[in-house]
Amino acid sequence: MSIQQGDKHFTATVWIVTNDSPKKVLLLHHKKYNFWLPPGGHIERHENPAQAAIREVKEETGLVIDIPARPISNVTETGTELPLPYSMREFLIPERGDEPEHYHLDVIYRVEVPEQSLTINDESHNIDWFTREEAEALSLFESTRLALAEVLKD
Predict the structure, then answer these.
(1) Domain count along the chain
(2) Is there a domain that residue 1 lies in?
(3) I need a labelling partner for 73 at 20 to 30 A (CA). Which of 24, 111, 140, 143 fits?
């Protein structure tokens, strides 16, 4: 993907939280950023945000998740309800190497699953489930740290 100064790229992120007590959040230690993050990545041209989120989670963790739509209207022949995001954020991505400064428009989902084993891929150093207290002790972007309390609420 060729990146130009100021480009805005759509990304999808999934906060995956256990549905037992105490709640835990899934984070991976990303090689490129050297921080712990929830799974996610760029939305491909042929995907909607939920499809990208599901694909990224499978690639980065081995988990198969579902992000159900919450229909608010009747489905028509020309459209289908998509899952509503938990949140959306615009992040400034600083210049790094050959990549100029650009933006990520992040479509953020939250799903609950039972705690289960994970599969690491080559984009991460490590991956695990963490309580809020454990996660707060990790190397996190400030936006990730601030989101923890909200995403781990019952």
Answers:
(1) 1
(2) no
(3) 111
